[in-house]
Amino acid sequence: MSANKKVTSEHFINAESNDVIIKADNVRKDYPNITALENVSFSIRKNEIFCIIGPNGAGKSTIVKLLTGQIKLTQGKITINNLDPILDRKKLVGKFGLVPQEIALYNELTGRENLTFHARLYNVPKYKLHQKVDEMLEIVGLTERQNDYVGTYSGGMKRRLQLVRALLHEPNIIILDEPTLGIDVQSRKAIHDYILDLPKQGKTILLTTNYMEEAERLADRIIILDTSIIEGPARLPDIQKKIFPESIIEFKTTLDVINSEFFDNFLIKELGGEIILEKQVSEQHKLFQFVFGTYDLNEILEKFINYTTSHNISIDEFTIKKPTLEDVFLKLTGKEFRDNES
Q1: What is the pLDDT of residues 77-92, one digit of tens each?
Q2: How many Cβ atoms from other residues are within 10 Å of residue 74's Cβ?
Q3: Do the Cβ atoms of 136 and 168 come closer than 8 Å?
Q4: How far is 193 from 257, CA to CA, in rounded Å?
């Protein structure tokens, strides 16, 4: 574990609660030469959208594979409805619907044939199979394309079809592993709208993502994962308030004014600020983000403006903003959210 990771000492575990559907306790998963997960504990309640966020390689898909019984734990325990994903896999198969990260459809079949084939695999009764397929196609706006081969579908259409395919057998638990990866904004919004409606239907949702806006819009509670849990489980506003009680000051300036007097002596020592982001955005400009915990915001702004004006420091695109989930992740891990995406 890297030195800049902060592991929370408390995770939400409520073994006595009747509404806990999924429970992971001190989970560890080792592969040859790498530890994918270490000391991961969380519980997912009935009818909530529980989100795991983290960059590629953080262990999100490993958790999905463990929950669905595709791989075995190295250490710890996982239960789904008090059943073991490996030992009780046959009992659990019909209890959850899985939307994998990779597109897993038959391109040589039509959209309707893909759904029908899946429904038969999961023993959807014949008397309602066709009605159920019709309903799913309508939900994702594919009725008019139902008889076209899936190989002719766009990426967004395939993602939408894959989502409803996992719901045909009416599972109570939906596991979504980056369900909107690489698709257009319109398709992503359609999928988001549908996911938000699922808890009202009695569904419990586990969502993994590395899209900040997806987690912010959908999640009831989240964990930030990077091999270990570095924050959460908690509601996003609670995490933001804990990690960032301050506002963020963001500004862009030219490289020729970047000097130790301005940054080290004024911003850091005099104002008690902390640099949370320093990024070169062009040949001549750098973007900076600071947080200040010493003074109130009005006093900070007054001092900042007075100093930059009196020292002829050119500041561009000055902004005061509330922290986003991406800001939280950056501060906790010391890296940008998608920096290790392959």
Answers
A1: 999 999 999 999 988 9
A2: 15
A3: yes
A4: 47
Domains in the chain, ordered, with CATH?
A: 20-237 (3.40.50.300), 245-321 (3.30.70.260)
Cβ-proximal residues to 75 (8 Å cutoff; 6+ apart), any chain: 26, 27, 28
Q: Model pTM?
A: 0.76
Angle at which helix 185-197 crosses helix 155-165, to 10 degrees, equals 10
What are the structure tokens assigned to 222, written together?
């989240």
CA 131 to chain centre: 33
Q: What token pair was written down for 49?
A: 């959208």
Tokens representing 258 are: 């970047």
Name the residue type at position 97. G
Contact between residue 327 and residue 248 where contact means Cβ atoms under 8 Å apart: yes
Instruction: For residue 57, list its beta bridge partners.
Output: none
What is the CB-side half-sphere exposure of residue 60 using CA atoms within 13 A? 27
pLDDT digits (tens, 9 = 90+) for 251-269: 898 877 777 788 888 888 8
* Residues whose CB falls within 8 Å of the CB of residue 48, separated by 6 or more in sequence, listed in order: 199, 204, 205, 220, 221
DSSP string, 106-131: -TTSBHHHHHHHHHHHTT--HHHHHH
Q: Is the dihedral of CA 106, 150, 166, 99 positive or negative?
A: positive
CA geometry: angle at 323 spanning 322 and 324, to 5°? 120
User: What is the DSSP secondary-structure string of 153-205?
Assistant: S-HHHHHHHHHHHTTTT--SEEEEESTTTT--HHHHHHHHHHHHHGGGGT-EE
Rounded Cα distance, 51 and 54, in Å: 10
* Residue count (the chain): 342
User: Is the model's pLDDT at 329 over the cut of 80?
Assistant: no
Q: Could you tell me the two tokens for 112?
A: 């309707």
Contact indicator for 50, 207 with CB cutoff of 8 Å: yes
Alpha-carbon span 308 to 125, nearest angstrom:
72
Residues linked to residue 25 through DSSP beta bridges, in sequence order: 77
Phi-psi region of 59 (alpha: psi -120 to 50; beta: other; left: phi over 0): left
Q: At what angle do helices 155-165 and 111-121 cross, to 10 degrees?
A: 20
